[in-house]
């Protein structure tokens, strides 16, 4: 996990950062956070915000998340507040990233917008009327589990055909392996050591960058899936901007224009409405930590 210290007056300015491995289990996690805060800001009393990969309720209780095994129903404020002697807030990590990108990043000043993190899964955050939305219970912004194909592949959430099965970084790998097993994508298979089953998104991206047309076709298909979910969100929310973050967007050079091109065809009345801006996230892997700090500062 990554911790940052920010300037309270200009919270997108990072003054210091440190990373430690995320331990297993609630007790070890709390100890690790206390250690990280102590190292980053020894003796300080300022607010602390934490972003969690999963569902954080309106009382700052981390309920559950597939990528934080051994931690359920952790009351973050009650557990960490007394240990740290500071005000503590918690939210979903993509919601935190939304604070960062809409405060001073790719969507600075936008009053209606969506942030999507395309990584192992898909996280999300919503801004309406200039305010980051947490939902009635704290659980808003999980677009990765919108159903796009009831007969699609199984999702770790237990259902089938969730959007993130196709449009996350893992989804790009799946589309690459499907193409490889259909006898295409020789360049990406070679990069994966000659094994169809070992093809991942990064191999498809590398092959496309070197000019391989079949890899480009897989990226077109992937971009269509990303755009399908974005178009659903545009139809529902009418955002001014959609910010794309997460590991996949390190490949913005070969993906962003493909995604931008695939969105209008799927949006209701696209030829009679302003285009939605689709931008790469500004803060990269720091967005969640910076945004968590902003959450802490705003609500102390
Ligand atoms: Zn799912």
**Oligomeric state of shown chains:** single chain
Count the helices. How many?
10
Distance between the termini: 23 Å
- Outline: globular
- For the secondary structure, the number of strands is 12
**Ligand roster:** zinc ion
Helix share, percent: 25-40%
What does this structure look like?
Helix content is 39%, strand content 18%. The chain is α/β, with parallel strands linked by helices and 300 residues long. A 5-stranded mixed beta sheet has the order 10-9-8-11-12, with helices on both faces. Strands 4-5-6 form a 3-stranded antiparallel beta sheet. A two-stranded antiparallel sheet has the order 1-2. Helix 5 packs across helix 7 and helix 5 packs across helix 8. It starts with a strand and ends with a helix. The site of zinc ion has 5 residues, from loops.
